[in-house]
Design goal:
The chain contains 14 helices and 24 strands. With 508 residues, it is of the alpha+beta class. Strand 12 and strand 13 form a beta hairpin. The longest helix has 26 residues.
């Protein structure tokens, strides 16, 4: 089974999520995932392509160096903000009503609805995607896609939710990757991709609101009956909370982000002893001191505004009474301490954090299972289902086998009579260039090869053995100054006679 690699990039307001996975059949193994700070992106929209390309180029280069690959194409997500949803309908009259309705017919109907939908301004708007809501046949209405496939009907009609976004936003993404020589294999509408990553089939059937809290935008996608029924984007998120901390504490934004991640929490009344801790900010003289409780109060106020906005749009959808599965929070902002508890307290719904489901294996640590990685992982899984081709090239290993040179064929020689002779080692070329066979004129005389001079090995002189105490002890019983048997000399042999006599006297 052929092995291929898929690379996805989540272009966020505060971070870039780059993921590379090895795919072989249905097996998906994430071999690289890293989040790096982004620039030039506001509300998930590339506002400054030149600034945005710098961190992106660096992130791709780091992944290529670590994996020793070259990324040729990637899958990316479309901006989540400035998206408008509309209703579209389409219908066809089938040429053969006695044949079953196929998936291809449903897909063609969806494509026709997208192409025929009139945009207000085609120069500034583009269709992000469409989600089939229901289908109607001759005698049945309100059928879902899985139920309409395989039925018999003369006519087929469909109702769709189409999502319209900014053409300029997608053109900016194309501009960045074109400047780096990397192709965009596909752009995905992220809400549906993330939902398939963090939600179960039971969640989507019973009804659930998926709230993706990013840095610059908070999106709300509502599912019921296994279909996305409503989508809306709120133009603020986790970065707004960071901005509040920066303003209240008069500190740089990067320091405010670190404080939020390290000590940030909602519901200050439930922090217990942590609320009394004091943070010393050593940027000025004298030091600035801020309590954790005060930081929590700042965060709590903004978090309540985000929750109120989400609940407002859930009510506007008309599906507030169909959320049997409650609310699922995902994205980087979902990890804020006590945010899910605050959401549950204000909404009355069951609230939980949505992590990427274990539909893959990973060798890059636990970070790939965090809510902030849901978009990058979701695009990998969607690209696998779409049979995305290999997105990278791999250099040939230095140990690769080199083809062995083919043996040279011996030249054939033609004699005067037109016969072919193959030169034989026993033949020798005569003076006139003719071949002299051995059996006719005897063995061919050859000049002997000059003998190579043989190398003369140097004979190492035997080293005298080093004296040891054992030799000395043995000589005490055999007599000093004498030789030990088996050819081993006692260290006294090297002494003078006077030294030997002196030692003897000492021993006595």
């Amino acid at each position: 089974m052929e092995e291929r690699y898929i690379a996805s990039i989540d272009l966020g307001t505060s971070k870039l999520g780059l993921c590379v996975a090895r795919v072989k059949g249905d097996d998906v193994q994430v071999v690289y995932y890293k989040e790096t700070p982004s620039e030039g992106i506001r509300g998930s929209v590339v506002a400054n392509p030149m600034k945005a390309s710098g961190p992106l180029r660096k992130a791709i280069q780091e992944a290529e160096d670590e994996l020793m690959i070259k990324i040729l194409q990637v899958v990316v997500g479309m901006p989540r903000s400035d998206v408008r949803q509309e209703t579209a309908t389409g219908g066809i009259v089938r040429s053969n009503p006695d044949e079953y309705i196929t998936e291809e017919e449903v897909a063609n109907l969806k494509a026709m609805a997208l192409e025929s939908y009139p945009l207000d301004d085609e120069t500034s708007q583009i269709m992000y995607g469409a989600v089939a809501q229901s289908f109607s046949i001759d005698d049945q209405i309100q059928l879902v896609e899985s139920d309409v496939v395989g039925t018999l009907s003369k006519e087929l009609e469909g109702n769709f939710k189409v999502f319209i976004g900014s053409r300029r936003a997608t053109a900016a993404v194309d501009k960045i990757f074109n400047s780096m020589g990397i192709a965009i294999a596909k752009k995905y509408f992220l809400p549906d991709v993330v939902a398939k990553t963090v939600l179960t089939e039971e969640d989507r059937q019973s009804g659930v609101a998926l709230v993706d809290i990013g840095a610059g935008v908070t999106s709300v996608a509502i599912y019921q009956g296994g279909i996305m029924r409503s989508y809306v984007a709120i133009p603020f998120g986790g970065k707004t909370i960071t901005g509040d901390i920066r303003t209240e504490c008069s500190i740089p934004e990067d320091l405010a982000e670190k404080i939020k991640l390290k000590f940030g929490a909602c519901m200050p009344g439930k922090l217990a002893s942590l609320s009394e801790k004091v943070l010393q900010i050593r940027l000025t003289e004298p030091y600035k001191e801020v309590t954790v409780k005060y930081i929590s109060e700042v965060i709590d106020a903004r978090a309540r505004e985000i929750i109120d906005a989400v609940l407002y749009y859930i009510q506007e959808s008309g599906l507030e009474n169909n959320l049997r599965g409650g609310i699922v929070l995902t994205g980087g902002g979902a990890s804020l301490v006590n945010f899910a508890n605050l959401f549950k307290e204000l909404s009355g719904y069951e609230v939980r954090i949505g992590f990427p489901k274990h539909l893959f294996s990973a060798s890059v640590g636990a970070g790939v299972y965090n809510p902030s990685a849901a978009a990058a992982i979701g695009m990998i899984l969607a690209a696998k289902e779409d049979r995305m081709p290999d997105c990278v090239t791999r250099p040939e290993p230095i140990w690769a086998d080199t083809p062995e040179p083919e043996p040279e064929e011996e030249e054939e020689t033609v004699d005067e009579n037109g016969g072919f002779f193959v030169p034989d080692p026993t033949y020798q070329e005569g003076e006139q260039g003719t071949l002299i066979p051995e059996d006719e004129y005897g063995p061919a005389e050859r000049e002997p090869k000059p003998e190579k001079p043989k190398k003369v090995k140097k004979v190492k002189e035997p080293k005298e053995p080093k004296p040891s105490k054992m030799h000395w002890i043995k000589d005490r019983f055999n007599g000093f100054g004498s030789k030990v048997k088996n050819g081993v000399l006692n260290f006294y042999d090297e002494m003078t006679k006077e030294e030997d006599d002196n030692n003897l006297k000492t021993e006595e």
